Amino acid sequence: MKILYFMFFTFLSSFLLLGCAKNRNIQVMIDTEPKDALIKESSSGMQWRSGKEVTLPYKKKGTYTVGISKEGYEQALQTFPANKKSYYKFLTLKKLKTIVDFNIQPNNAQIRLICNNRIFRGNAKVYIPEELFKDSDVMECELKVSADGYRSISKKVKVKKYFKQTFSVALNENIVTLQLNSQPSLADVYIKGYGYIGTTPFTYKLDANTMQRLSSYVKENMQNQTILYLTFRKKGYEEKVVPVWLNKNHIETINVKLNKK
Predict the structure, then answer these.
(1) Is residue 244 a contact partner of residue 254, using CB atoms and an 8 Å limit?
(2) Residue 224 domain flag
């Protein structure tokens, strides 16, 4: 009889222990800074707010993964064993940033990004403060790019809040084309401060670097125009110097009549 009683008691104890194990839960509490972040457990879809203690079913094997999110902050993930008695964690969430980067040609270009009357300068990436967006997730800005010897550009761009964006701009080089003719032909042509460039009739292109170099020789040169002193020489004829004002990105035709000596 005692043996039967002992066996019954042992069976009952084991049954109760198994039942308790089946009903065990994990006490989970995740707190965050800032407060009130949304927490979501991936397998069950269960959701709650940070700072609140919840229970998750105990599992002998495996893990739980929860996602922690809050507007304006990077999402965080936490994974922990499913067979723990409890899990407590404090997290400081990283603030999201709006970043604008530039891919500009030429490399030495001057860049200005104007957003709601705030001007960001330079050719490195910039961080846009979230308060400039006001109540919108997208803000229209003006991108201005300029460089010596190149045509400036100004265009509207849209900056997205909490995104990293790259704006690409390739400036067009300022080129002046000279179409040079003389009567009679076969006259040698020289540019003051530069040297021989050809024998008439011919076409000659001045790139941005050459234009910039020539501008430094003549004090009359202005920002949008360059003055060239062209010298025409031909054996048996008088040398002739012709000043020519050049507009950038322009084709200039020059006809010169030489006088005999």
Answers:
(1) yes
(2) yes
pLDDT at 70 over 60: yes
- Residue 243 maps to a domain: yes
Residues 91, 76: contact at Cβ < 8 Å?
yes
Q: Is the pLDDT of residue 28 over 60?
A: yes
**What does the pLDDT look like over 3-17, one tens digit per residue?**
444 444 444 444 444
CA–CA dist 160, 137 (Å, integer):
6
Q: Where are the beta strands (DSSP E) in 116-185?
A: 118-121, 126-128, 138-146, 153-160, 164-170, 176-183
Domain span including residue 54? 22-92
- The DSSP H or E segment spanning 246 is strand 240-247
Run of H or E including 253: strand 250-257
Strand partners, 27: 55, 86
Cα separation, 161 vs 40, in Å, equals 24
Co-location of 166 and 180 in the same domain: no
Domain identity same for 38 and 52: yes
